[in-house]
Automatic annotation (TrEMBL):
Protein name: Autotransporter domain-containing protein
Superkingdom assignment: Bacteria
Biological source species: Phyllobacterium phragmitis
Amino acid sequence: MTSTALVSIMPMAAYAGPADTIIDNGEVIGDDPLEQNESLTVSAGAISATFENSAASLTIGAGNAITLGDGLGDTLTLSVETDGTSALQTLTFDSVITTDPGTTNNANTLTINLFEAAGAGTGDIATTNFNGTVVAEPGDSITINVGEGDANFGGVANVADINFAGDGTVEFSNANGALTGNVTTTAGNGTGTLDLSNAGFTNIIGDIGASGAALKLIKLNGSDQLGLSTNNNSIFATTIEVGDAGGATAISAGTTVADIRFTGSANGELSFVKTNAILTGDVTTATDGVGTLRLGSNQTVTGNIGASGAALAGLQFDGFSDGTVIDGDVFAQTITIASTATSTLAGATNVGNINFTADGEIVLNGNLTGNVTTGTNGTGTLNLSNAATQTITGFVGTSTNGLLSVELNNDTITGAVFATSIETAGTTIFKNNVTTTNALTTAAGGTVVFDSTFGDNVINGTVDAVAGVTDATMNVTGSTNAEFNGVIGGSQAFNTLNILNTGPTIFNEDVSATTINASAGTKTFDGIVTATNFNASAGTTTFNTSNSIGTLAITNGALVSHTGNGLVGEASGATETVLVTGTNSSWTSGGDIRVGGSGNGTLTIADGGTVSVDAGFDNLDIAVLAGSTGTLNIGAALGSTAVGAGTLNAATLAFGAGTGTLNFNHTETSYDFDAAITGTGTINQVSGVTNLTGDASGFTGTTNVSGGTLNVDNVHGTLMNVSGATLQTTDALLLDGTDLAISSGGTVQSNGTGTGGIGSNASSTGSASVTGAGSSLVMAGGLVVGGDNASSGTLTISAGGTVQSSANSVIGLNATSTGAVTVTGPNSSWTNTGNLTVGDQGDATLIISDGGTVSSLNGLITGNNASTSSATVTGADSAWTIAGDLTIGDNGAGIGSKTGTLTIADGGVVNVNSGSGTTHLAKNSDIGGILNIGAAAGDTAVAAGTLNAATLAFGDGIGTLNFKHTGTNYNFDAAITMSGVNTFATINHVAGVTNLTADSSGFAGDTIVNGGTLNITNKLGGAIVNIGDTSGSNGTVNVSGAAANWTTNNILRVGKNGTGTLTIADGGTVTNGSGSIGLNASSNGTVTVTGPGSSWTNT
């Protein structure tokens, strides 16, 4: 049977007989010590030896034997006691002490007491030497009770128990054996010393101490072992000391409650080998760099390992399964991971170098001062993934042997890092080079920081966010060089990349992030940059390839450049923006810049920012392809508050086939835009004073001027809107292919003293509208509306708009040109300081209506060639005021080749030299001139207007004066005369009641009255007169009053083909060549001559 160790103190009854007496079960069997080669065999009972002389010694010689008999259940107590007051100096057993040899499982018990005798004795045995072997046969047990002295065992075998009855020492010297029992103390907690430091191999299998009854000290050395790995032993001691002899000392106990201290000067070693073992206590060393602690599987150390200035030589993890944890701080020169399990350093401070000799994992919950290495590339995992803030002061891996994995969370590594993969969370800071074979990844909400403050950083390998993570951040900080040789955000883009390094930062591969913030320092991107937002707020940024950036913001003096073309909104469906703002902020492109290639692009240059396109030699292309949109803002965007302007340094701003816009919304008082402008787009002048100094003749789009002032050499494009703002041209305004709209108080100032034109060049078209109070077109020279051949121009002045011309103006200048001007509405006006010609050689129309006014030096309707021109003045307060004379029809080139018409209706007024001037009608030969009072002959009668002139003079052409109005008492006050010699002059009265009040005796043309009533109250001359000339007509002429005289030199017919009535009354007289009444069939004629002095004379 297997004996069980039991440590106890067994007091013995003292023998009262003579000294040096040996008793067997109460029987005196001898009074001399056992001598050499003698033996003592007892079957049961007790053997005791007492000594009165405290200084005496007792020796049981070598070769003798103390043997417990072979009876079943025999019990032997061997007591060696002193009854003096001082210790026995030495007790020596040179003999073998054994239970029944050769007999097993008799359950015999041997107890050895080594302490003071009962009764008067108080002294201990100072030293007991067991030079022989103490053997408990299987099934038997030996218990040794030790007092205050020392017990030194040369060898043991299956000894059951050792008990400390006092604060004594049990020492195993050069013994090889096993203590199968327990080691206890009954002398109080922290008493008894178990010393194995001088032994060979000693295995103490049982428990050592107990909770509340711990040993004071256990000394280990060599290859000793405490506990049995198959048992759940426990060890309780104040201190366990480990010496420096060779071999590995092992503790196989399940629970060890003790402080462990390495005391040697060389490297002693202590191993905890039992799975799930717990060490409660600190592990220290007396000498810095001495002692190695080896831990196994799933073990726990609750205390500290080493101390500052007294680090262990080594700490090694040998376990084959996970879970070994050191709760306290660790100070060890080398921490070796020699297993594939996961071990944890949970303390706040860890000092020492970690080395992986196997592909295991070490978890750090605190700081590490030291390096982390591995003996084989791609092995070992360093895990700092708990949420605590930790620092590794040293490097991790080497360039030849990198770790398999590094897992970080809120940590800082000051040395270089080499690993197959690196996982980060929280805020992780790298202060040196980083090399990964696979990738460095950052978890959700994490921030990875590369800090070059203390030296250059080179980052080799891919740096990504974890797949699916959209809120990871990468920061580049420091003040020296930082170089990234792998893809950034390739598999999963970072949410934010902050480049804060004040030194140079180089990205040699592609970079992807939702937002990139680049501040001080020099940033170089050699790969493709993909970002929703890129904010360059300081320093210099260089792009060496094409990029995909949603919004690029260059601010605070930042410099951004790239070697190729700048593409903003290049891809179909893409929407991208560039902002360059702030003094010295600049974007420099090595090639063209395309804003809106196939997608949507916006470029804003503001507050002193500069965009330079290949040093000003290349183009800025806007909205290149159909379906794209492109916008260039100088200052702010439309709808935003104006800010300072920036500068575009480009040869040409070229609008493409898409929808392109150039916005000027700035606060400058004189801003020069030097680039040429071509293509079809929109220019919006919103705020500030803008000078278009480049060649814009190739621009074919729309210009809107809604605020501030736009100064141009001339107007270009198809449409220009000036609303509440000012457009100024250096040259005379030319609207060739351009429609100009001035509204809401807008002003266009044409500063060129030459003649401006609306549709002025051959085959061109142009229009201008000036609408609203305060809206104005001011010409420093004259104005042509419809200029060269085949051109067409239109001018509309309405709702209080005004036009001022400072020289002669023409509507329809050259042959085959057409021009039309409308001035309508109260306070709408066209003021000409020179002559106004309506139809010089082209067709022209002037309409003055609803209170509109026109003024000129002289007025001319129709000039040369085969065209027709007309002017209409209609509506109350509508007026054409002419300082000189008015000519209707002039300079014809053939009969009927050109006709000028003036219609004055509905209260409209034509003032000719304030009523004292002359209106010429068909002034020259081969020209037609028509003056309509009311409506034209073929139109419906309307209310009459007024010709305020002294004379209406028919010239050598074909002139016609039509009265077709609705007035019942209309006075025509101008004298009708002849300034020419031909007879193609006609007064044609169609409707209304008209009173000829002036002396028109100089008129030599025909008079036809086919409708209404013509009252002659003064003199009228003429040739042929037909009253009721045409079939169905019905005309009336009254010649009434003594001053009324109608004298013609040809026939007078009253009812030629229609109905005619002539009444001569109250002294009126009519004289003609021949006369007829009712000339033709179905005609009717009536002549009445009544009143004194009235007469009709036919010569």
